[in-house]
Amino acid sequence: MCAKRKAIDKKKVLFSDEFYTDMLFPDMVHAVLVRCPFSYGKITSVEFAPKTKIPDGTLLLTNKDLGKKNEVEILGTHIPLLCTGEIAYKGEPVAILAGEDKDALEELKSAIVIKLDKTDVKETESKFSKIYNNLSVSLKKGFLNQSPIEQRIISLKNTLENFEKPRELIAKRKIQIGSPEEVFADSENTAFIVEGKWSNQVQYKAHKEVEGCIVQYKSGNLHIFTPSQWLAQTLQTVSEITDIPKDKIFITRTKISASYTNSLFQNGIFAALASLVAIKTGKSVKFSLSRSEQESFIENPSCVKIAHKTALDKNGILTAMEIAIDYDAGSFNPLARYILDRLSLAATGIYNCKNVKISAKAYKSHNPPFSQLRAMIDSDSFFAIENQIQKIAEITGFSPVDLRQMNKAGGIQKSTKPFTFSFGRANDAINAVAIRSDFKRKYTVSRLAERGRLESEFAFSAPLRGIGMACAYEGSGFLAQDFEKSPLSLQISVTEDKKIIVHTIPSSTRLRELWTKLILENIETEKRNILFESEINDELQKKAFPLLLPEDVAGNVSLKTILLLKCIESLKRKKIDGTPFSIKKSLSTARKKLWDQEAFAGTPFYNTAFGTCTVELELDQCTFREQLKKICVIIDGGKILNPKAAENVIHASIQHCLASLVDGDALKCPVVSVQFTQSEEEPKQIGSLVYSILPAAYNAALSQAIAVHNETLPVQTDSIFKLMERHEELKPDAVEDEK
């Protein structure tokens, strides 16, 4: 195992370039979760069925074994380690099972009996299953044709499996400037009012290492190997649950493969449960989720529904916007308010409007905690606003390009919105992508063809084509968060043996290579002399713990690069002659004053990158499947330090995105063009821009091709066929017949 070690105030923090799943230790046992098969009820006990042959060394831990240490509080949210009785959601962990053979453990889980309200759920489910299967033929007649007994059986089964409790409001954000209500009521000056409802629930599967850890307990010390992205919280949770002091807990952060919101807080819970098993067994414990668990409980997409109501004048200027955001946070989500704030900030996209009303609400529900790749939280709002702009263009007849340029914040109108952004050369990027994709001509041709199809009796006689556009920003250094109080800084130290130590850990191998390259290009040293180290600092823990979040939750990877460049510039003016010294650079605190958290207004990011995209597709009239023809992406990300690497990141993001837009099928595009605008501005973060623009552009192109506004992604295999059926209802003759 390759790890870097540094002693800090009697504690040791280690970082490894290995995946924890590749690590093996002598005398190691495995641990798996036992999950509740029902979504409703109260559990009274979890135990092995009578006469079950239990292998030696098998351990079953339930909530009763945890005593009072059965939950953890994170950012004000109380999360149980194991189900405390009342079931929160289907699939909630009710026990942890440990033993030498992982495959045997999976089989042994079926012998565990969960008693629910004094009823043996396993036995009851078995009875329901037999009766339900016997009714399979008669069920085809429809529910209303069943006998009363059959209906009660089916209703009870559905209730146990899919019970939905009323949701609980846990966070809200209301933003208003101007008087949207008056504008909507002013029929004299309001030429158009357009409404739309949008939902983007694309699940971007990582197909990488699953969440988990390895724990060793030796001589009263805990050694934890895990891909934790919230080291401070993992340390706090483990110490709190096990009663082991923090200075006796040694965490080795292993290689990280993906950054989901759920992996933040659940990692600490998993590490705490595995630690309890290690303490009880005295052996090394490897805990890891199954692939299905990873996708269902870590990578499950957030459930966000956004409704838009937009008013425009006769010139195509946005005069009023009403936006309602409904965010289902699931059963437990300590980042619900943070996510809601990000959704609210991005709700108006890149557009300026004098009258805006945003009503955002987050709900606790009877669903598993919903997740999202942290860098993509804004993408749901961008999907909604960009499809709303495309719908406005279709209804009003304005060009989508002109609409975006006329209404972009900082354009021909003075910025009156509560948020201030800098989009650099956004207009140049929009013009460039429109020219490169021949957008205006192709959009007009497709629109004329669409109108001809609606007026023709032969709606499918010509190929169905569509082209869509989308724009978005990506912010670096999120200032609108009340949990990150410490100023962003970076320090470089030079040791007596001429080692250059960067006191932070790059969030990826690619970033480590970039930072190493920047140092080597400017400082005369060897690659082996460059080290990256980090620390869980006592001072930070006392001040901000457990509120200290991972570096990339605020989107500050690019900011760290800016600070590194500043440190390198200072380092170039010093001699590396064996005299130890340190250089520390911080971002100006003046920028933070540009944001007013109480009023929730101002400049929410240190800087913002801008991206725009067009997607062109053609619909196969026989298979009702789309064929992508061309994708054009243009990004203004400031000075691109490594253009080839940046282009590879964007291409990889495009392929990852295309693999998820249609359920069960991966889209392919023969022509993909990626360009960056020339800029000498400071580097900006661009890693998630594709996820904010490509789904919206794809959906806009699909909607134009089928002449119906598709409101939800991902597309199902039969979605286009069903939407095409609505196409017939829009034909003039069909409308006239209805009248």
Description:
The chain is α+β, with helices and mostly antiparallel strands and 739 residues long. It has 20 helices and 30 strands. The strands form seven sheets. It has a nine-stranded mixed sheet, sandwiched between helices. The chain has a six-stranded mixed sheet with strand order 11-19-18-17-12-30. Strands 20-27-28-29 form a four-stranded mixed sheet, sandwiched between helices. Strand 21 and strand 22 (500-502) form a beta hairpin. Helix 14 packs parallel to helix 16 (557-572). The radius of gyration is 28 Å and the shape is globular. Mean pLDDT is 83; it is low at 1-12, 123-145, 482-486, 536-548 and 732-739.
Strand and helix map with partners:
Layout: E1 3-8, E2 11-16, E3 28-35, E4 43-48, E5 59-62, H1 63-66, E6 71-74, E7 77-80, E8 93-99, H2 102-108, E9 112-116, E10 119-120, H3 121-134, H4 148-162, E11 168-177, H5 180-185, E12 192-200, E13 212-218, E14 221-226, H6 231-242, E15 249-253, H7 261-281, E16 284-288, H8 291-298, E17 303-312, E18 318-330, H9 336-345, E19 356-364, H10 379-396, H11 400-407, H12 426-436, H13 439-455, E20 464-478, E21 489-494, E22 500-502, H14 509-522, E23 530-532, H15 538-544, H16 557-572, E24 581-586, E25 595-596, E26 601-602, E27 605-620, E28 625-636, H17 643-658, E29 672-676, H18 689-706, E30 712-713, H19 719-729, H20 732-738
Parallel strand pairs: 2-15, 3-16, 12-30, 14-15, 18-19, 22-23, 28-29
Antiparallel strand pairs: 1-2, 3-8, 4-9, 5-8, 6-7, 9-10, 11-19, 12-17, 13-14, 13-16, 17-18, 20-27, 21-22, 21-24, 25-26, 27-28
